[in-house]
Amino acid sequence: MIEQTENIAVEIHDLSVSYDRKPVLWGIDLTIPEGALVGIVGPNGAGKSTLIKSIMGLIPLNSGYARIFGKDLSEIRERLSYVPQRESVDWDFPTSVKEVVLMGRYKKIGLFKRPRKADLDATMSALESVGMQDFASRQISQLSGGQQQRVFLARALAQQADLYFMDEPFAGVDAATEKAIFNILLEMSQQGKTVVVVHHDLQSVKKYFDWLILLNLRLVASGKTENIFKKELLEEAYGGKLTLLTEVGDLIKKEEFPGREE
Amino acid sequence: METLIEFFTFKYPNIKYVLFGSILLAVSSAIVGCFTFLKKKALVGDVVSHAVLPGICLSFLFSSQVLKLPEKNPFILLFGAFVTGWLSIVVIDNVVKKTKLKEDTATGLSLSVFFGVGILLMTYIQKQGGSSQTGLDSFLFGKAASLVGDDLILFGFIAVFLIAVVILLFKEFKLVSFDSSFAQTIGYPVKALDLILTTLTVLAVVSGIQAVGVVLMAAMLITPAAAARFWTDNLQKMIYLAAGFGAFSGTIGAFISYVAPSMPTGPWIVMVVSLVAMASFFLAPKKGILFKVLKRKKIQKMILEENILKLFFQLGENENNFEQARSISNILEKRPFKLKKLNWALQKLKAQGYLTKENDLWKLTKEGYNKGKRVVKLHRLWEVYLTQYLRIAPDHVHDDAERIEHIITPELEKKLESLLNFPNKDPHESNIPY
Fold first, then answer.
1. Is A44 an interface residue toward B (CB < 8 Å)?
2. Claim: this prediction has a pTM higher than 0.90
3. Architecture of domain B288-434 in CATH?
4. A183 and A170 in contact (C-beta within 8 Å)?
5. Per-domain residue ranges of chain B
6. Alpha-carbon gap, residue A216 to B112, rounded angstroms
7. What is the pLDDT of residues B284-316, one digit of tens each?
8. Are the Cβ atoms of B179 and A84 closer than 8 angstroms?
């Protein structure tokens, strides 16, 4: 079941992606409404992170496109924000909390230029929104997992974007932090921002998200959570993998088979 | 002393060249090396420094056989070095992309192939004979004394260029070193920045080889950065420190080779910077080995002291008399401490006012009593916690509590008490004192 929407924030059309020749997303077609709090849910290896990475232009597409607010990615980067998985960076890097959050302002500062006073103000207010202002000068290796996640969130807030993609912001954080992060996401969504979150825990899906994307190598379902969070659809996403699909994918990789647009 | 003055007043113009040349190359490679180090590309420096050798040999052959130049021209040599150094990185990237080989294999492969070809060409050139090629083997292990005026001007330009680019692109390099996919999503030219950083690395290597040699050049990139990392958690300070370490080793290396003319400058620079690094590993606050050892010793002493006070409390508990003075053999009966350590700790506890001593008998003070009581309380509370919350059998909780009783902070103590709701008895039916 694929529900379309009127006021589109993201439109994905026939999007396919491969890793090392092996297809990991097959022909994704969906729309995401503006101002929604969106969950991307599916089993391990379903291509959830791959989907947002490919929308953000971090992975080359095999086919299809993603349009954001009706425009191409390169025209609209300033309204976009991406929060990578916490483990994707080295937290032993010699830098402070404040400096990491300041990176959220780098696009606005521009190449070759130094941060302005306003950028420092925006950094501090982003830190305050996630309750980390007291940690501003702390070295990042001294943070707990939940605090690291808040720092990444603050960096995203400092970007002052309209559309946010977050890769597992709730992974490995304690219950209190999870609640705090969720409240921030909720507030963002109430301010009309669109927030797309890769999520792992089915238990909290209904409470957290008003729009849901079920993924397992292909799009299983997409639409309002109340229409999508159904037993049959969840079983289709989590239950028996499409073994034929996986086998064909492996074969493409092994046989040096040309991709769709080669 | 006289030589020191001779050296630093530049009695001979050659000293100036060697000194400034050594400092320039050490500082600029240390600065660029900080980013190589943080991007975890330490081995790339090694590959590049080995891969410049075939470039030097080829451009030497080109200038002597095709252009028929009588002298080796530093500009042509360095250009050749730059090209093959660059090529070795392109080879690594492509081997990783196009084959199933992993990066470590590709790195090793690229290094040995380029260096092999370099040695081959060099042997060929040496067999050819001729006078001007003799300077060529100084590229292998370096010869700072061969730095002459023209070379120095060239290196000076390269060094200033490297430092200027790092200053200009500091923010950008920091971002791509820390989180390159984020940099890509905000539209920064990540590929171009990587390209520039690689080019800087190659340039740093190329400018250093004549003084330090291809074999040791990688150390000039990575060692100052690794040493500096031990002293600070701030990237800017780390770069200043690395540059300082570089300048220091450049100076000392040049000085040693001046004092002892048979000593080579390059290897000495590397020796000094390695010593600086070793000293950092040992002495740096917080991260250094010495700091950790001392901290462990301090904790061991604290545990011993707390255990003695605990023992006094337990003895008093048994006899229901906390005022009783006790002899050393009295204490050792109950728990076999090492005599020397026990004596030392008793003296210290007395000095701290937790114990008093009269006629070789020891007694708890009021404060000592409180401290001993607290340790006993924490021990028993922890045992309760383990049995209740971790469902560990009562006969298995003692050893763990022996350790944990010393680490619990007053904040954790409060939490533990309210979580367990001030129990009266531990799992072994001993009273918990409050």
1. no
2. no
3. Orthogonal Bundle (1.10)
4. no
5. 2-284, 288-434
6. 45
7. 988 889 999 999 999 999 999 999 999 999 999
8. yes
